Amino acid sequence: MIRFRLIFLLFILVSAFCVDAQNVSTAAEEKKKREIEKRDEQRQIDEQLASRCFANQEYDKAGELYEKLYQKYNQPYLFHQYVECLILQKNYDEAIHQLKSFERKYPKDAKTLVDLVFVYGLNDEPKKAEKQFNAILKSLPDDLGTIQGVGNFLRSRGLNDMALRVYEKGAEICSKTENSPFFMELAYTYQSMADYQNAFRYYFLELEAHPGQYNNIKNRLQTLLFYDVNNSIADSMRMALLKQTQEKPDNVEFAKLLVWFALQQEDYDIALAQSKSIDRRIGDQDGQIVNLASICLSNRQFDVARDGFDYICKKGKSGPYYGRAVAGLIDAEYQKLKAENQDDVKAFSRLSERLEKEYPNVSTDEMTGLVKIQADIMAFRLGRNDEAIDLLQNTISGISGQPPMQRVLLSHSGHAFRI
Q1: Which pTM was predicted?
Q2: Do residues 322 and 316 lie in contact, with contact meaning Cβ atoms separated by under 8 Å?
Q3: Which residues pair with residue 410 across a beta bridge?
Q4: Rg (CA), the chain
Q5: Cα angle vertex 356, ends 351, 360, to 5°?
Q6: For residue 116, what pLDDT band results from cuts at 50, 70 and 90?
Q7: Which DSSP helix (H) or strand (E) runs through 263?
Q8: Which tens digit of pLDDT belongs to each residue from 248-284?
């Protein structure tokens, strides 16, 4: 009995000790957590202060803060901000000293290696800058991402000529594992240097190698045109695209790019010619051509519009775009007659007859436009006012007893057709 009581008391004592130890451990963890939170909060405050000083161009104060932050937290981005402050204060010797020290710790840090080239140049030490750059070039690995990083850092420092050499060397290194590497980087770098001919050359090489880049390249070219104040870039782009489509006539992407460019420049005849050329090669361009012809018509390019609509009409009435095309063709002919102030009754009469023949081949939407043209021709060109009024009234009211969405329109010759 005494033994049992001793064991029971011992169990209670051990349990109490464990609970107390657990409480102590939990308290220690909570204390550590609060210390970490406090430290992180202070770090955030210090970084915000340093950033504010940097933004206010107080580079001496910002540099001191970033140096302390780096020494305390050992984060590379804090170091690079510290070096940036030294550079902006033109303290190049100290910047070089700090960069070389950092390079010993992180010998593969691309930004550090590039910044050394940059600061040597600022410090009027071109031989050291070239030596440092050659060392970078010689040690480039067979790794696409690393080479891109080095090139991008060089570009960010305005060292475009060196960036080109890196991309060109990288293309040689990665040619066995990558398909046409660095074409986009080369194009963009040449673009930054206002060497547009070479920029176009590499954009086209990229497009030929990767057709899926069409939209990306088109957007890049669009940006160039946006900043083209004297049309010099547009002229160069036109010549480059025409040359490319002539040299590679079977490349659909080049042809599409020329169509897009021609529309930007309102060269509608070139746009239509290329669209028809694409259609003859791959088909399935009827919608594109009808849309292009409609754009031409809205810009009063009547002959080009007629050419586009007529091209689709000649494919036959069974085509899905025949209705839109024939309606557009009639509209283009009508607008051209009006624009030229034509009083040729025979021409308007022929157009009126064509209208009647095509009513069954168009949809309700096209029908409305054609009826307006027919009524105008009847009333103002052929002197058939009563028939024009009847035509419009029948269009508006329909025939009694017909479903609302299937009104029947009576033409002046007595034929009925649905709208």
Answers
A1: 0.78
A2: yes
A3: 416
A4: 38
A5: 135
A6: very high
A7: helix 252-264
A8: 999 999 999 999 999 999 999 999 999 999 999 988 8
The residue with tokens 């080009």 is: 304
Q: Which long-range contacts (CB under 8 A, 24 or more apart) does 375-381 make?
A: 376/334, 377/334, 377/348, 377/351, 377/352, 378/352, 378/412, 381/345, 381/348
Return the percent helix, strand and coil in the chain, to nearest 5.
80, 0, 20
Whether residue 289 contacts residue 279, with contact meaning beta carbons closer than 8 Å, is answered with yes
In terms of pLDDT, which residue wins out, 410 or 142? 142
The answer to whether residues 317 and 361 touch, using CB atoms and an 8 Å cutoff, is yes
Which residues share a beta bridge with 243? none
SS3 label, residue 59 = helix
Decide: 299 and 268 in contact? Cβ < 8 Å.
Answer: yes
Mean pLDDT comparison of 12-26, 169-183, 345-359, highest-scoring range: 345-359
Residue whose C-alpha is closest to residue 391's, from 383, 403, 379, 382: 379
- What is d(CA 50, CA 58) in angstroms, rounded to the nearest whole number? 9
Assess whether pLDDT exceeds 90 at residue 411. Answer: no
Tell me the three state secondary structure of residue 418: strand
How far, in Å, CA of 375 to CA of 388, rounded? 5
Check residue 213 and report its DSSP letter.
G
Q: How far is residue 417's CA from residue 414's CA, in Å, rounded to a whole number?
A: 10
Residue 416, SS3 per DSSP: strand
How far does Cα 408 stand from its chain's mean position? 48
Token pair belonging to 261: 């460019």
Cα 277 to Cα 245: distance, rounded to the nearest angstrom:
11
